[in-house]
Amino acid sequence: MTININDIIHKAKNKLGINYSPEEKLLRLFKNKKGLEVGGPSLIFSTELPIYTVIKNLDGCNFSTNTVWEGSIKEGIFYNYYQDKIGYQYISEASNLNRIESNKYDFILASHCLEHCANVLKTIEEWLRVIKPGGLILLILPNKDYTFDHRRSITSFEHLLEDYKNDITESDLTHLYEILELHDLKLDVPAGDINSFRQRSLLNFENRCLHHHVFDFKLLNQIFNYFKIRKKYQESISLNQIIVGVK
Questions:
Q1: What is the pTM of this model?
Q2: Mean of the per-residue pLDDT values for the chain?
Q3: CATH class held by domain 22-246
Q4: 101, 116, 202, 232: which has the fewest C-beta neighbours closer than 10 Å?
């Protein structure tokens, strides 16, 4: 018989009437559930928010078989997200998961991914499609004050809505001039000098390194309200803005 120390601690807390921390309550929402992560694996889900340790299973999705973050990957049962835990690796655009049936998953995770998507509302709409009614969506976005985006302004919801109506694709470079002007290269060493950064940015469809949009909690809550997502949790941890909602 396998003894789960976390279960023992939870039962003891219940008996003693001890309140759970917000992080513990969050983990309990994901316990023994099956989900999809877009753009992972992500270190935060095995450290500060160890969701990987409590879920039943997790599949992954990335846009290409070769990425700046993960190197070479391939489709199939190869998504090794935590220790010996393995799920199915999809190779697909974040905004087009048409090979995944609707209402398949209990939750979706995306850490430092949405800012790399040109059409934010189209992407969120697609993520919501593949989770069940009552399913969870957990997003982590960078806090611009701690990143190379600190000189940029927060994107307006109206702009996101315009992108959605115009069906903007991942080849979009609308924000390139703003990015080249305001990007703090001192905080983005891998980007190199301005000429190297410009060349990399022009090839964004291949590498997806650009942050198309800049987020704060006001904008994230506007997105949740637009899709009638019920917010369950919101917290800022250093450079991470974390928000969780229910479909």
A1: 0.89
A2: 92
A3: alpha beta
A4: 101
